[in-house]
Amino acid sequence: MKIITCTTPLLEQNMYIVEEGKHCIVIDPYYDEKTAVLLEGKIVDLLLVTHEHYDHISGVNKFKELYGCKLLSNSKCDNNLQRPAKNFSKYFEAYYEFQADLQKPDFAFDSNYSCSADELFNDSITFRWQHNTVFIKMVPGHSEGGNFIFLNENILFSGDILLDESVPAAKFPGGSPKEFTDVALPYINTLPPELVVYPGHGESFSLHEYYGYINKKEK
């Protein structure tokens, strides 16, 4: 198995391509010419998203069109995927305008972007893929439809719920500092420290490193 990290121009978001031979799962899809090269000769079995925000979903429709793949997501996330005001595509241009330190991509955003899941689950789902076990669980805090995506119990794709040495942005619409503290963090604390985390932005890290950061913050 191979995991390819693609850092995209949209807020330096990470798309992940999980390869097993010619087969792959794409997490938080973004599409451009570089993506096309990486996927040449590959079979895209499935799309997954860590949450519903535009920088993490902008390639969903293009992937479906080109590769005939389906998107699996939880029902809350799916509801927001279909609404530009909820997936933030409606406000993406304005967000860049108010963030002077961000380098704006040299292409137009789709301010009316929407997509939808083809298969739904409620709180969690487990399935087998190419001899691997995938477990997805809803985890609130950063957004209403946030997911933790586990691969073989030792890899976690965390989206923006877990970022290296950073408390997630929970004050956006749909986010909740209280849910992060009361629901997400207690769940995170049950996970094994050797878990390797692939976040929505930034470099991968071990959960042990995140625990060290949180403990340092609490002192």
TrEMBL record:
GO terms for molecular function: hydrolase activity; metal ion binding. It holds the Pfam family Lactamase_B. SMART domains: Lactamase_B. Its cofactor is Zn(2+). InterPro entries: MBL_Glyoxalase_II (IPR051453), Metallo-B-lactamas (IPR001279), RibonucZ/Hydroxyglut_hydro (IPR036866). This is Beta-lactamase domain protein. CDD domains: metallo-hydrolase-like_MBL-fold. The keyword Membrane does not apply.
